[in-house]
Amino acid sequence: MHERERHRIILSAVQEKSVVTIQDISELTEASEATIRRDIAALHVQGKIRRVRGGAEAVHPPQLGNLAGRPFRVSESVNIDKKRAVARAAVDLCEAGDAIIINGGTTTFQMVHYMAGHRMQVMTNSFAIAEHLVKHSKNTVTVPGGAIYREQSLILSPFDNDAIRNFYARRMFIGAQGVGPLGIMEADALIIQSEQKLMHQADELVVMVDSSKFNRRSSLILCALDRVSAIITDDGITDEAARMVENAGVRLVVASPVAQLAKEDSSSVARGAAEVWTSNLNGRKVT
Questions:
Q1: Dist CA 195 CA 58 (whole Å)
Q2: In this predicted model, what pLDDT tens digit does every residue of 60-90 receive, in sequence order?
Q3: Cα–Cα distances in Å, from 95 out to 37, 91, 98?
Q4: Alpha-carbon distance 167 to 143, whole Å?
Q5: How do beta strands 220-223 and 251-255 pair?
Q6: Distance CA 29, CA 75 (A)
Q7: Residue among 114, 52, 63 at smallest CA distance from 89
Q8: What is the pLDDT, as a whole number, of residue 281?
Q9: In the beta sheet, which residues pair with residue 121?
Q10: SS3 of 207, please?
Q11: Side-chain-side CA neighbours of residue 195 (13 Å)
Q12: What does the alpha-carbon distance between residue 18 and residue 56 come to, in Å, rounded to a whole number?
């Protein structure tokens, strides 16, 4: 990742969370901790942040508390090629006229780029997803009532009368902070509350995560793996993680970022040859 992009991520992170650690930024940028220390030192000299022990803090900390988890602007460009491949595979599961729910997140947001030609009924608690679909697609968009959390671009409400219970969907698409043997993990209780309400309104639950999420853990469990119909990830998934998903009886769809790039940049013939790998309990196969 270029230095300018790392600096942008660091500045966005401290604006949203006040204080960020070197380890957090290293994970976000996939750069070494030594590189991040140099970046923080440079930004400190420029007066854009304050260098503190083990990390950095904002010069003017935000006054309001935020949801746990990474802000939308910070995570949006991380593993973007993998997220787009996963999103394309997710949209390929949809058919014209489907009613679907898309939970807010930077991976699920990438679905909007492949939905322009669709005409579906979409409910989303993502302000960013709703705005993009209204402007750039023919899909019908419904949002629940609630407060807008700018950092995560989410619309959340603790109340039951927020329009969610009046919407029925064939599938719900969600991202996650982590995936492990105990289930799908999230970082904030309010986010889990919103997701669980949405899950009750869908027949199938499709989890969209890049392969790094199989190595991450959180203190909060959204649901067990047996509640999940399918997990879509990229081809960086380890054999161990794939076996975990398959042993739980969950359909595993593995999308190749290289194949996705071919789909976007080459002719229709080349796009037709791009690979999407699907596996189930009987083993992986090309479809």
A1: 31
A2: 665 444 555 555 565 666 778 999 999 999 9
A3: 48, 8, 6
A4: 10
A5: unpaired
A6: 9
A7: 114
A8: 37
A9: 99, 140
A10: strand
A11: 25
A12: 8
